[in-house]
Design brief:
The protein is 28% helix and 27% strand. By secondary structure, it is an alpha/beta fold. The strands form 4 sheets. Strands 3, 4, 5, 8, 9, 16 and 17 form a 7-stranded mixed beta sheet that branches. Strands 12-11-10-13-14-15 form a 6-stranded parallel beta sheet, with helices on both faces. A two-stranded antiparallel sheet has the order 1-2.
């Protein structure tokens, strides 16, 4: 099969790779669509020691099962592979499983390829009427869904009454804004430094879309809910500064892990700071239902390219040359 293989920092090549073989309990999937994630970009830059070269990246996948009892079924892949028997898995918090693995991270190859093998318990059927390209958004949108449910759990007031700030307008950030709106929140500010992505957020009906790098554009102490979908020093600093007393900050982004966190202000203003990692299977299923129902909009903010065009897509994303919140490759 053909696959995009990460071979070193800022180097990804299209080459032949061995066809994966399904073991007992697995399914073989012909990949129909796979999104490029921020974590793929992080690995591409050589900044993720968890993803050493050579490696097939990509974990936001949808496709068609080949063979077995699920033959022909259109599915999305939950890329988080867990043990299923530990305390966290049995309590419905499988995203915290100590033995968790994720496709595109050793020992599991990723989905920037024509085929992939995953455990059968990790597939969810795509609802009729939903194309495979937007269906591949289920993984990042499930991350957004999980973050918003955490925000709702910890917020001091209902989301319908809250002022919200979302840092970042990639797929997870834009997704968080869409999920907030689906949960009844109508006062949403989206902060994004890339002008093309700001235009994409505006096209989805968000009126308050700002460039946070402009001094004074974000009010201090105004947001009841802050979702940081970037996770670096400037966004953490802006999140803490913008959060009002008694508010909640949900930190999703994995840009870096240092600086920008004002623990003194968080303490004095009794701000709740919550980390959000991926999703549960319940989040994944709820997200896919919301997508199919139209609750998250028309999902037209993706850009489709061929697998061979994936090499250029990485370069365009690195240079900020695309306004698409998500580039989806079609093997």
């Amino acid at each position: 099969m053909k696959a995009l293989v990460y071979t070193g920092p800022q180097t990804i090549v299209l080459q032949d790779a061995a066809d994966p073989i399904a073991s007992a309990g697995d399914v073989l999937i012909e990949v129909g669509a796979v999104g490029i994630c921020g974590s793929d970009m992080h690995a591409y830059m050589g900044h993720d020691e968890r993803r050493p070269a050579p490696l097939i990246l990509g974990h936001e996948a949808a496709g068609v099962v080949q063979g077995g009892v699920h033959d022909g079924k259109r599915v999305v892949v939950n890329p988080l592979v867990t043990c299923g028997v530990c305390r966290d898995c049995l309590s419905g918090r499988e995203n915290l499983c100590a033995k968790r693995e994720i496709i595109s991270m050793p020992p599991r190859q990723g989905a920037f390829a024509e085929k992939i093998v995953v455990p059968a318990r990790n597939i969810i059927e795509v609802p009729a009427g939903l194309d495979l390209a937007p269906a591949a958004l289920a993984e990042p949108l499930a991350t957004s869904w999980h973050a918003v449910t955490l925000a709702a759990r910890h917020a001091a007031r209902p989301l319908a009454e809250a002022r919200a700030l979302v840092m970042g307008s990639g797929a997870v950030g834009l997704g968080a804004a869409l999920v907030l709106r689906a949960f009844g929140c109508s006062d949403i500010t989206v902060a994004e430094t890339n002008a093309l992505r700001r235009a994409t957020a505006t096209s989805q009906g968000f009126d308050q879309v700002v460039d946070p790098s402009v001094s004074g554009v974000l009010d201090a102490s105004f947001a009841d809910v802050v979702i940081d979908a970037v996770g670096n020093k400037p966004t953490r600093a802006a999140a803490v500064r913008s959060a009002r007393p008694g508010s909640v900050i949900v930190h999703i982004g994995l840009g870096d892990g240092v600086d920008g966190f004002d623990a003194r202000r968080v303490t004095l203003q009794e701000i709740t700071f919550v980390g959000a990692y991926t999703y549960t299977m319940i989040d994944f299923q709820a997200t896919l239902r919301a997508m199919a129902s139209g609750a998250l909009g028309d999902l037209d903010w993706i850009e489709e390219r061929t697998l061979a065009d994936g090499i250029g897509a990485f370069g365009d994303l690195l240079a900020g040359r695309t306004g698409a919140a998500k580039i989806v490759l079609r093997p």
